[in-house]
Write a structure and sequence with these properties.
The complex is a heterodimer of chains A (about 500) and B (about 280). Helix content of chain A is about 50%, strand content about 10%. Chain A contains 22 helices and eight strands. Chain A has helices at about 5-15, 25-40, 45-60, 70-85, 115-125, 145-155, 165-180, 195-210, 225-235, 255-265, 285-290, 295-305, 310-320, 325-340, 345, 360-365, 365-375, 380-385, 390-400, 405-430, 430-440, 470-475, and strands at about 100-105, 130-135, 160, 185-190, 215-220, 240-245, 265-270, 280. In chain A, helix 13 packs across helix 20, helix 14 runs antiparallel to helix 17 (about 365-375) and helix 19 (about 390-400) crosses helix 20. The longest helix of chain A is centred in the last third of the chain and has 23 residues, at about 405-430. The radius of gyration of chain A is 25 Å and the shape is flat. Chain B is α/β, with parallel strands linked by helices. Chain B folds into two domains: about 5-55, Four Helix Bundle (Hemerythrin (Met), subunit A), CATH 1.20.120.140; about 70-265, Rossmann fold (3-Layer(aba) Sandwich). Chain B is built from ten helices and eight strands. Chain B has helices at about 5-15, 20-35, 40-55, 85-95, 115-125, 135-150, 170-185, 200-215, 230-240, 260-270, and strands spanning about 70-75, 100-105, 125-130, 155-160, 185-195, 220, 245-250, 255-260. Chain B has an eight-stranded mixed beta sheet with strand order 3-2-4-1-5-6-7-8, with helices on both faces. In chain B, helix 5 (about 115-125) links the parallel strand 2 and strand 3 (about 125-130). The two termini of chain B are about 35 Å apart. In chain B, about 55% of the residues are buried. The chains are: A alpha/beta (about 500), B alpha/beta (about 280). The interface between A and B is large, with 62 and 56 residues.
Chain lengths: ~500, ~280
């Protein structure tokens, strides 16, 4: 149901193709479609109006020149405006000159504060800091117990007692000073913005802690109410930034954009999964693409980089997209992906893949990877390079060697072929290859229209944002092409 | 009725998260009736709009079904919507009504989730059955049902871990829990999807996926005591035919209500000012 903005533009584009300049009526048509897309993405209505005004001003009278068609120019303008709203740049947490640096987390019930507190502590550890957690949620049953369990897992001390939230915050800060911890993160109870008593309480905690950073934790699935809530918290606490959670689902996250526009504070971190490592500094340009229904290529590249060495990543990406990668590569990818975190969060970043790739998750269940690994390890180098040579007797040998069934080997080879084909198709969407594969159609390339964020991999071969027409026209790989889910015995 | 008034009504629905397709259908329906019924004042039109929404919500059976020995009510939903809290409050309501109740701590994933449920069991007078953290949720629920059956308990309220509906493996796990809960002596008579009133357009996708995975029989709309209106449930009922059965309005034992469509529709058009 959630069409990307690009596909919405297709109809309008067909009408105005060939004209040199965008007239006011054309722009209004685009703006109407933009409004629909933004409403579906949960962007607040007031924010949509503001955005429409800015986009209108820039789009009317724009000359249609060079490689970009009118639709692409409008998409570029929209992306730039969204990116500008989202803060324009990455938030960099600062550290107090006199430690500890104090961080306060606040938000509605169920937004994910406690989990976020632990993830943030782990992130600070990764920055070479020595964080401590304060559990000041004495309202939700076992909230402190939850924080202690998470603290144990990441080896970060947790302070709390059963007095009252304000006293816990005060004592916790003193404890952090005593222990010489240089970052203190305070979890608080979830509260509704209209709950006067609890809002007064968190304001008091803030007075005691004098936090260097106050983060509002916001669920990516939030609707229009996000703005009301954020304004109330901002008025009470003076927010420094947002942390957006549950971005691993298929919510577009427009609420986060609305808050940044209305409150004027950036998103600092994004949480993209249930594991403590599924947490990263937020990149504004990426959410802009997501809100419009485009993929997030840059994050994918960066994630891969964290795990592979940069060159390896580049080579692997090129091989993946060229369709020349081997079963050895495949195995390596599986192992690397395992390290990178949940596969669904990775594949969701690939343009056009979010929907198709959900089921991959299942396939990359640890035990299944073990079986795949066993099968590939039982192949000869030649077989891994060219699986087509695997005949009946080779299959029997591999099955015996890996303790699997012959059918599983067939399936792996088949799925590997499908995957290679699919990767090649994705590669084929890149600017260089489009002409060859679908010459004639006048759609041109979309190019990277996001802000120039950090992109150490400069070889954009096949990794740039797909052309507008591609987003609209092709449904990506055939839905049945990647049946990695059903085939593997779960044991 | 001028265009600005229509625009105002449209925006009120959108701001309540009713969503564009449902909003447009509602407004079109009312516009049609305004023409044929000769209503032309804002109050009258608002009345018609409320009628239209009520007509879409109306007629559903909102009772919670029993009939197993024990009956099992399974709670599902994304992370942080209020499944555990809802079970606590509902357990209190059911024990107060004279039923014997077992809580099954089927959320074996989130740290201390079972501890949280146990506090609610103590408060509400329910018996708590839990497994180890990381245990198979299906087997915890199965054990709870067997425990309840052996003691002639009326009702098992089964918690599950929150899960984002796009995670195929976790949704499969949920299907399995649903099947296993039905396997022994008990019968699953309700599978309740808990939805947070702040949820935006994603709520419809959630409902679709959970319905497919676990055969959802009703919704629990939580956190309706805040400034959010929960309008997405109108779209959910219209699209999937799943009615709201309960409403959560706070963290106290008594803060769980029957869903009253008329109250809900009135609230869609009211405005709360945050503290």
């Amino acid at each position: 149901m959630f069409e990307g903005l690009s596909s919405r533009f297709e109809g309008i584009l067909r009408k105005i193709r060939g004209r040199g300049r965008l007239g006011p009526e054309d722009v209004e048509e685009f703006l109407a479609e933009i409004r629909v897309a933004l409403i579906e993405a949960d962007v607040h209505l007031d924010v949509i109006r503001t955005l429409q005004d800015r986009i209108r001003d820039r789009a009317i009278g724009v000359e249609v020149a060079g490689a970009l068609n009118p639709g692409q120019i409008v998409v570029k303008i929209v992306l730039e405006e969204l990116t500008a709203v989202l803060g324009g740049e990455t938030f960099r947490p600062a550290y107090a000159s006199k430690p500890p640096t104090v961080v306060l987390l606040a938000g509605l019930q169920g937004s994910g504060k406690t989990t976020t507190a632990a993830k943030l502590a782990r992130w600070y550890k990764g920055q070479g800091r020595n964080p401590m957690l304060i559990g000041a949620d004495l309202l939700r049953p076992a909230a402190v117990e939850q924080l202690r369990t998470l603290g144990d897992r990441i080896n970060v001390p947790v302070f709390s007692d059963s007095s009252d939230p304000v006293s816990v915050a005060r004592a916790g800060l003193a404890e952090a000073v005593r222990l010489g911890r240089d970052v203190v993160i305070c979890d608080t109870a979830g509260r509704l913005a209209i709950d006067e008593d609890l809002m007064a309480e968190v304001a008091e905690i803030s007075d005691i802690l004098q936090p260097h950073h106050t983060f509002l934790v916001v669920d990516a699935m939030t609707g229009q109410d996000a703005v009301t809530t954020a304004e109330a918290f901002h008025a009470r606490l003076g927010l420094d930034a947002l942390i957006i959670t549950k971005l691993d689902g298929d919510a577009r996250g427009g609420a986060a954009l609305s808050i940044t526009e209305v409150v004027g504070r950036p998103i600092a971190f994004a949480s993209t999964g249930e594991a403590v490592e599924d947490f990263e500094l937020f990149h504004p340009d990426r959410l802009a693409g997501r809100i419009l229904g485009m993929g997030d290529v840059e994050t994918l590249i960066e994630k891969a980089e964290e795990t592979f060495a940069a060159e390896e990543a580049e080579a692997a990406a090129v091989r993946m997209l060229d369709g020349t990668f081997t079963l050895d590569d495949f195995l390596e990818q599986l192992r690397a992906l395992r390290k990178m975190g949940s596969i669904s969060s990775i594949m969701g970043m690939v343009p056009g893949m979010a929907a198709q790739m959900r089921d991959m998750d299942e396939a990359l269940d640890e035990r299944r990877i073990d079986r795949i690994e066993g099968i590939i390890n039982s192949m000869t180098p030649a077989e891994r390079l060219a699986p087509d040579v695997i005949d009946g007797s080779r299959r029997a040998r591999i099955a015996a060697g890996s303790g699997t069934q012959v059918g599983e080997i067939n399936q792996l080879v088949k799925q590997f072929r499908e995957m290679r084909k699919m990767m090649k198709q994705m590669g084929g969407r890149g600017p260089g290859r489009r002409k060859a594969s679908r010459g004639g159609k006048k759609k041109g390339r979309g190019g990277r229209v996001t802000a120039p964020g950090p992109a150490p991999i400069d070889k954009k071969k096949g990794l740039s944002l797909p052309g507008l027409g591609d987003l609209a026209g092709s449904q990506g790989p055939s839905a049945g092409g990647l049946d990695l889910t059903g085939g593997w015995p779960s044991n | 009725m001028d265009d600005r008034t229509w625009e105002g009504l449209t925006e009120a629905l959108l701001l309540a998260d009713v969503g564009l397709p449902t909003t447009e259908a509602l407004i079109a329906g009312v516009r049609h009736r305004v023409g044929t019924e000769g209503v032309d004042d804002v109050e009258g039109v608002l009345g018609l709009l409320k009628e239209e929404i009520l007509a879409r919500l109306g007629g559903a059976d909102r009772s919670l079904a029993v009939g197993g020995s024990p009956s099992v009510w399974l709670f599902v939903g994304v992370n942080g919507v209020g499944k555990t809290t809802t079970i606590g409050k509902l357990g209190w309501r059911e024990t107060a009504a004279g039923r014997s109740v077992v809580f099954a701590a089927g959320d074996t994933f989130r740290a201390a989730a079972a501890d949280q449920l146990e506090v609610w069991a103590d408060r509400s007078g329910a018996t708590m059955i839990r497994g180890a953290e990381g245990a198979d949720p299906g087997s915890v629920v199965f054990d709870a049902v067997e425990h309840a059956a052996a003691r002639g308990v009326d009702l098992v309220l089964a918690d599950t871990a929150g899960r984002v509906h796009t995670r195929a493996n976790l949704m499969d796990e949920l299907s399995k829990v649903r099947r296993v809960a039905d396997k022994g002596a008990g019968t699953v008579t309700e599978t309740l999807l808990v939805i947070d009133a702040t949820t935006g357009q994603n709520g419809l996708l959630q409902a679709r996926e959970f319905a497919a995975a676990a055969d959802v029989t009703g919704l629990v709309l939580t956190k309706l005591d805040g400034s959010a209106r929960g309008g997405i449930v109108v779209a959910v009922q219209e699209d999937l035919g799943i009615p709201v059965k309960l409403v959560g309005v706070g963290e106290g034992l008594d803060d769980l209500l029957e869903f009253d469509p008329a109250d809900f529709v009135d609230a869609l058009f009211s405005v709360d000012v945050p503290a």
